[in-house]
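Researcher: Let's continue the batch. This sequence belongs to DUF2071 domain-containing protein, and it's 253 residues. Same format as the previous ones, please.
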Amino acid sequence: MEPPPVPEPVRAEPPGSTSRTLLTQSWLDLAFLHWAVDPGTVAPLLPRGVSPDTLHGTTYAGLIAFRMHRVGWLGLPGVPYLGSFPETNVRLYSVDRHGRRGVVFLSLDASRLLPVAVARLFFRLPYVWSAMAVRREGDTFTYTSRRRLPRRGDARCRITVRAGERIERPTELEDFLTARWGLHSAFFGRQLYLPNTHPRWPLHRARLLHCEENLMAAAGLPEPGGDPVSVLYSPGVLVRFARPARLAGLPTP
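Model: Same format as before. Here are the structure tokens for DUF2071 domain-containing protein:
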């Protein structure tokens, strides 16, 4: 039996610059909600070749709502309209056999149909087209979504958070949940790792005022029991993605 992977250290700072930039985008006005889950429960939901990443024996399921802003390809300027839209994703935390920590997206709701179609077709990511909005009133943010296509029941979400004080020294858990420098995914039978880099997260404490959602259950997770163990807000960062790599460590064609 192959021994379990030894994860790389959690790095709050980016591990380095990306070469051969594939995508640029900004993630703005993010709400991070996380619940503790049993690694054995989520392991079957991960792609072959990756395992649940754990902190002191526990892993986490995240519900992340934000504004995607000006997605750009191959170093070109971001597109103002088609590249800017609300997004809400359900994600798990993963580590591959090389020890690379990352995230696995179980679903990604977005409000622009063309980017959804491109992401599903070319990246095989589980994007869905949804009616969505992000509203701000002072330091309070409300994120709403309702599935359009492909429909998976009446999947919807409404989250309201109030941003608080800036976090000068994030806790071990806060770094574990946010300092992620890659995405694990499967692409036509190949296991891929898509690295990214961005400035250190500017994080704020946040208070959850309202959460009504069934996106996590629609993604195959057990319904959250109780309040999230972590609620954070960030004004956002500029992100660069490099070309994906196979889990074997070889660049893809």
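Researcher: Any comment?
Model: The CA atoms of residues 55 and 222 lie 20 Å apart.
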